[in-house]
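Need fresh eyes. Consider my entry:
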Amino acid sequence: GLRQGAQRPEPQTRTGAGSCRGRLLCKSAEKPTRVAVMGHVITLTINELAVAVNVGARRQLSAIEAGLRDKHGAKQGWQNHIEGAAGEIAVAKFLNKHWSCSVNTFRSEPDVSTYEVRTRSEDWHDLIIRPDDKDESPYILVTGQAPYFTVQGWLYAREGKVPDFWKAPGGRPPAWFVPQGILRELPNKET
């Protein structure tokens, strides 16, 4: 359980030129670059976690009712839906934006504000962009596990669809795994 006053260790600073490893990305007028970047740590409250659990559970129950299976080789639907909802709350909290608590919207509306959110369990994980992700959609990478998350950065899906990033780890369906050093930094709060 959560201990009163428990704190997450500070994220490590990633350094590097943030250089483009894919030629298409380098030619883009919107070329993202980052040097010596550190993500933004967000801690969710007990009430925010309760909402994430509720929304994540509703998403999983909806998938079960519709006869849908876990996608992309995932095997932990309950956990993935709950952590995904918690990651969306972390982004909404960081950007000071409303979160709709949506279920069954898939890609018909963005997760938070104009952004799609991808939540990964480890701080060193890349942003995953899938073949059916809309090129013009901005994607935010959030890493961690409830209640501690780090908002790492963002890019448009088209910018991550670079041949060098195409991988199929662990026998799962292939996708683009975009390194964090390529991501743009988010403003501290949207206005």
